[in-house]
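Table 4 source record.
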Amino acid sequence: MPSPADDRLPQGDDKRRAVRAMFDAIAPRYDLVNRIMTFRLDVGWRRKTQAALDLKPQSLVLDLAAGTGDFSVELAGADHRPIAVDLSAGMLAAARTRAPRVQGDLLTLPFADQSVDAAVCGFALRNLIALEPFFAELHRVVRPGGRIALLDVSQPDNRLLRWGHGIYFNRIVPIIGGLLSDRRSYAYLPRSVSYLPEPGDLLAAAGLVEVERRQLSGGISQLLTARRP
């Protein structure tokens, strides 16, 4: 089975299996590595993402690709009702949230039509085998008027910032990940960005409206928001 760190990035079912195995392997130290390699900026990014939903208290929110539950903790702290969903059983087992946890594929969500008020997803778009069916699933499960917020990596528009970020992301991050966790998995991280097309047009094509993209921290991450009409 190809792994995410192979010279050839896996596709289709090979990618699904490889990504699941990778996250099972790095789950025990995932939070530690994230905090170190982002200098805790990821905490602020998640808070901005949760705030962008602008939800009423007690809203039912899917935390998709929940990992160890960072978004679920943030949502529960804002008086919402999160449900954590992840492909990786290892990540769900390591989750720090008390929210319900569901192992599932984001392309075939195990939820009824129009059954949740909102959905968030953090740093997972490049790990999906296809984006179109994922956005179609968001449109299906979120109630009319519901909000969607997707947080992911990006590249700064500024040439100098892009150069510096490229050195850090492509050279330093794999070293940090290798020292603290699994070298092969964190070698995949910079390369996986090549999977990610411009997702804004795909959100609109899925029937979502009010699609907006914000760059965060100078453009090293991005926040995509949309509404289910």
